[in-house]
C-alpha cells in the first residue's frame, strides 16, 4: 500500500512516497520523470518522521549519509547504478564515465546517464553528484539550478 506526504526543504516542497512503509520515492516540484500524483497513495503525515528528520539534518549540514530504508524499484541495471550513486561520498562528484567504469561497463556512460535520470529517490540517492566528463553540469531531474545549489551546499557554500 502506498502513502505519501509533502515536506518543506530549502529546494522547495519534497514529496515522500512509501510502499508498505518503506521509502520508494522522493520527488521535487516540477521534477522530470515525476510519477502522477494519483500514484502516490493516501496522504499520511506521520509515517515519514525518520526520513524527515534525516532530511532536516542533511539540510542543516549535520548529516552526510542517509540510513533510512529504501525500496528502489527499477531494472537490475538501474538498481546497480543507484547503488553506485549511494557510494559517492558527500561533497564529491563522479562523471558518468567514471560510474560506468566502476560498474565494469566503461562504454555504458549513456546508459548510466539514463538510469541516473530515472532515480526515484533524489537527494538521498545522490544523483546530483554526477557531472559531465568535462566537469559541466548535465541533466538533473530537479533542474540544473537545484543541482548546482546541492553541489555548492555539499562543498560548504551557503545554501542561500
From TrEMBL:
<dbReference type="GO" id="GO:0006307">
    <property type="term" value="P:DNA alkylation repair"/>
</dbReference>
<comment type="function">
    <text>Involved in the cellular defense against the biological effects of O6-methylguanine (O6-MeG) and O4-methylthymine (O4-MeT) in DNA. Repairs the methylated nucleobase in DNA by stoichiometrically transferring the methyl group to a cysteine residue in the enzyme. This is a suicide reaction: the enzyme is irreversibly inactivated.</text>
</comment>
<dbReference type="InterPro" id="IPR014048">
    <property type="entry name" value="MethylDNA_cys_MeTrfase_DNA-bd"/>
</dbReference>
<keyword id="KW-0808">Transferase</keyword>
<dbReference type="InterPro" id="IPR023546">
    <property type="entry name" value="MGMT"/>
</dbReference>
<feature type="active site" description="Nucleophile; methyl group acceptor">
    <location>
        <position position="127"/>
    </location>
</feature>
<dbReference type="InterPro" id="IPR036631">
    <property type="entry name" value="MGMT_N_sf"/>
</dbReference>
<dbReference type="GO" id="GO:0005737">
    <property type="term" value="C:cytoplasm"/>
</dbReference>
<dbReference type="InterPro" id="IPR036217">
    <property type="entry name" value="MethylDNA_cys_MeTrfase_DNAb"/>
</dbReference>
<feature type="domain" description="Methylguanine DNA methyltransferase ribonuclease-like">
    <location>
        <begin position="4"/>
        <end position="72"/>
    </location>
</feature>
<dbReference type="InterPro" id="IPR008332">
    <property type="entry name" value="MethylG_MeTrfase_N"/>
</dbReference>
<comment type="similarity">
    <text>Belongs to the MGMT family.</text>
</comment>
<dbReference type="InterPro" id="IPR036388">
    <property type="entry name" value="WH-like_DNA-bd_sf"/>
</dbReference>
<dbReference type="GO" id="GO:0003908">
    <property type="term" value="F:methylated-DNA-[protein]-cysteine S-methyltransferase activity"/>
</dbReference>
<dbReference type="GO" id="GO:0032259">
    <property type="term" value="P:methylation"/>
</dbReference>
<dbReference type="Pfam" id="PF01035">
    <property type="entry name" value="DNA_binding_1"/>
</dbReference>
<keyword id="KW-0234">DNA repair</keyword>
<feature type="domain" description="Methylated-DNA-[protein]-cysteine S-methyltransferase DNA binding">
    <location>
        <begin position="76"/>
        <end position="155"/>
    </location>
</feature>
<keyword id="KW-0489">Methyltransferase</keyword>
<protein>
    <recommendedName>
        <fullName>Methylated-DNA--protein-cysteine methyltransferase</fullName>
        <ecNumber>2.1.1.63</ecNumber>
    </recommendedName>
</protein>
<keyword id="KW-0963">Cytoplasm</keyword>
<dbReference type="Pfam" id="PF02870">
    <property type="entry name" value="Methyltransf_1N"/>
</dbReference>
<keyword id="KW-0227">DNA damage</keyword>
<dbReference type="InterPro" id="IPR001497">
    <property type="entry name" value="MethylDNA_cys_MeTrfase_AS"/>
</dbReference>
Amino acid at each position: 500500500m502506498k502513502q505519501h506526504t509533502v515536506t518543506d526543504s530549502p529546494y522547495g516542497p519534497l514529496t515522500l512516497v512509501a510502499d508498505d512503509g518503506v521509502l520508494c520515492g522522493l520527488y521535487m516540484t516540477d521534477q522530470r520523470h515525476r510519477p502522477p500524483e494519483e500514484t502516490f497513495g493516501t496522504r499520511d503525515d506521520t509515517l515519514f518522521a525518520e526520513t524527515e528528520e534525516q532530511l532536516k539534518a542533511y539540510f542543516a549540514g549535520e548529516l552526510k549519509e542517509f540510513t533510512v530504508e529504501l525500496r528502489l524499484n527499477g531494472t537490475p541495471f538501474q538498481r546497480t547504478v543507484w547503488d553506485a550513486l549511494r557510494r559517492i561520498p558527500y561533497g564529491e562528484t563522479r562523471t558518468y564515465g567514471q560510474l560506468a567504469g566502476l560498474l565494469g561497463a566503461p562504454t555504458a556512460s549513456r546508459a548510466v546517464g539514463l538510469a541516473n535520470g530515472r532515480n526515484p529517490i533524489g537527494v538521498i540517492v545522490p544523483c546530483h553528484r554526477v557531472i559531465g566528463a568535462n566537469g559541466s553540469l548535465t541533466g538533473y531531474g530537479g533542474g540544473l539550478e537545484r543541482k548546482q545549489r546541492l553541489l555548492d551546499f555539499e562543498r560548504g557554500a551557503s545554501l542561500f
